[in-house]
Design goal:
This protein is mainly alpha-helical. It has helices at about 10-25, 30-40, 45-50, 65-70, 75-115; strands at about 55, 65. A two-stranded antiparallel sheet has the order 1-2. Strand 1 (about 55) and strand 2 form a beta hairpin.
Length: about 130
């Protein structure tokens, strides 16, 4: 029972990933449970690799190695920075839309102020 409740190093995760990749190259349509049972890779490692996007679980339950992410793994810090930049640009775009809407409403209200509707009660000859 080695490795229960101990932190794994990045090298160990990489070794597990390479083991899983080798199995996936040799056998198609294997599930994460089959990979874990046949290789001894803990399920926690497989779940982490799925969360990181280095492995993908298909609709039928089989695993697939994601080669694109393996080439350039994005760290949590990089993801956080990218998400913050996306939120900033979205907020700026939303702010610009609101400003345009406010200006449009101001122009429409100034046009309406110039038009006065008269009713029968407003006439002087009554």
């Amino acid at each position: 029972m080695k490795g229960i409740n101990r932190e794994l190093t990045e090298e160990e995760y990489e070794q597990y990933f390479q083991t899983i990749k080798a199995v996936l190259r040799e056998y198609r349509h294997v599930t994460k449970y089959q990979v874990s049972n046949s290789t001894g890779v803990p399920m926690d490692v497989i779940r982490r690799l799925l969360k990181e996007g280095r492995l993908e679980e298909k609709v039928d339950g089989s695993l697939e190695a994601n080669e694109d992410i393996e080439k350039q793994p994005e760290t949590a810090e990089e993801k956080r920075k990218r998400l913050i930049e996306d939120l900033k640009s979205h907020a700026e775009a939303s702010h610009e839309v609101k400003e345009r809407q406010i200006k449009k409403e101001e122009q429409e209200s100034s046009k309406k102020q110039g038009i006065k509707f008269h009713t029968r009660d407003d006439r002087d000859d009554i």
